[in-house]
Amino acid sequence: MIEQFFNWYHQEGRSLPWREQPEPYPVFLSEVILQQTRVEQGLAYFHRFMDTFPTVQDLANASEEEVLKLWQGLGYYSRARNLHKAAKHLMEIHQGIFPSNFNELIKIPGVGPYTARAILAFAFSKPEVAADGNIWRVTSRFFGLNNEFPSKKTMELTQELWKDWVVQQPSVFNNAMMDLGSGICTPKQPKCEQCPLQSQCFSFPSGAWVNLPFKEKKTKVKPLTLVYLISKSDGKVLMKKRAENTIWANMYDFPEMIFPSHWNSEMDILEEISKNSRVSTVHSVAKQSFHLLSHRKIQPFFCFVDFVPILQLEREEKWIPLEQIHELPVPKIIESLIATF
DNA sequence: AATTCGGGGGA
DNA sequence: TCCCCAGAATT
To answer: In the prediction, which pLDDT does A39 show?
Structure first.
């Protein structure tokens, strides 16, 4: 059974750049990029980062802004900030060499239980199951489990259930499980007729896989209206670096006003802006299509305005020359707008 | 234990 | 629309 599974992987598995020569740094980089991100989406970013920052030291010597700029468009930007912190951490604590034990790996910023085990399995050939969403789906269906995921207990159980498999070839096992989960044992309409594990699968005979893995919570999506106040003056635009502990932290956008979602017409926005003492004139109000995040449904408005002559700049606000805007890391929501400047 | 972090692609 | 993707950090 195990042999059959590994053979399937060698024939049907994906060929991915970080699988060729599994050194710690590319493995680590790929794992961070692929957190909650599909391989197809992350692939180009992996190449960009390897080209721009070939070593941990190169990454550590970069500025956070450079890292964020390279990460632009991929989302979950705390990963980029932590990636940068991780490189500095590795240089300071480990002389740029990745540790090969769980307790030290998990101290690296942005490295959690999953990523730590992935590094151990892929880069150090340790018999660890890197239980991501794919592997847990396969596991829950194969053994007929409906535990909560992710949880410490479920992680430990997963280790135990696959220990005779993973010990054979840790790297091959994890890669094979991930490819099985993403290509065969998919959330909907799995291709069971092609599955190398079919004959031993708990869920296949009864079709029990339809309800596995069990999932309880779906995140609530809060609607809101986001009004950007855009002012071009003297070849410059007033922009701001977003604060920590906000969405798109440390990235750049414009002064903003946030409203409950029921203010959603140009008239409403015009009325609200008129109450803003910083704004002297409103040139245009343009309603945009929804911007969807996992936990927000944003109704954006792009409003071109003039600010009052003696404008008191708030912290992190700065007049940016038009030709320098493209150097700044910006969230997706204003990417196309910036491109027209 | 629950929330908060983006953005995209498939059905 | 809804789901969920090689999850981690914070509350």
So the answer is: 96
* Identified catalytic residue from A12, A23, A31, A317: A31
A103 touches strand B (CB under 7 A): no
Q: How sure is the predictor about A138, in pLDDT bands with cuts at 50, 70 and 90?
A: very high
Establish whether A314 is a catalytic residue: no
The whole-number Å distance from A335's CA to B6's C1' is 14
Per-residue pLDDT tens for A174-221?
Answer: 999 999 999 999 999 999 999 999 999 999 999 889 888 988 777 889
All residues at 6 or more sequence positions from A270 whose CB lies less than 8 Å from its CB, including other chains: A282, A285
Which nucleotides of chain B does any protein CB come within 7 A of? Answer: 1-9, 11
Distance CA A225, CA A240 (A): 19
Task: Tell me which fold the domain A222-339 belongs to.
Answer: Nucleoside Triphosphate Pyrophosphohydrolase (3.90.79)
- Tell if the pTM clears 0.85, that is, is over it: yes
Instruction: Give domain A2-211's CATH number out of 3.40.50.720, 1.10.340.30, 1.10.10.350, 1.10.3720.10.
Output: 1.10.340.30
* CB neighbours of residue A140 within 10 Å: 24
